[in-house]
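mind reviewing this stuff:

——
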Amino acid sequence: MQLNNFIKAVLLILLGVLSGVVSSYFAFKNSSINQIINKEERVYIQENTALTNAIKSVESSVVGIKSGNRINGSGIIVTSDGLIVTLAENIPLGLESNISIDAEENITYQVLKRDLVNNLALIKVEKNNLSTRSFSDLSKIEEGMRIFVLSKSFNYSSAKFFFSANEGIIKSFNEDMIKTNIVEAGRAEGSPVFDIEGNILGLAYKDINNFINIIPVSKIKSFAGL
């Protein structure tokens, strides 16, 4: 009888130890899964926070342009003393344009030159201490790099300018054009495109399928004499 009780006690001890080992294994496994999920969630949140902060940081350098009753687009301030580059199609000959920077509209401007071949226009506004952004180093861009486009368009219903953002990646590039996977149904012509750090990659225009292509910043700098 005493032997049987001893064997039962040993079995109970072994069962308890085994149960603890199994519980610890599953607790560790679940903890590892949670850590992986939390890590992915943290990266996702960090990326989106970086994008949101980048968009806010560049808004003051983005210009809204409305020409006549049908044409509107965007542009980018390239010097703090008032040089702006946009697409030539946004500033057609014979039409007065409403230039908007921050909350100010109908800013006095002068068209310095147009390049109809490359679809670029250089504008000078009578303002100083304007917000500008750095130019991206095109030698460091690569396929798959995350980018965003920020447009400042005119809403004819509300008669106000408004911002809209879209984001994606670079699909391919050469010295003349950068192709993206960004599809934009709204008005994006002349909208500046930035990398995730808020550096200027170039100006947007849409192909026939509404994909965003980019006139590289190298062409913009050369056109503006920068």
In short: The two ends are 99 Å apart (CA to CA). The chain has a mean pLDDT of 85.
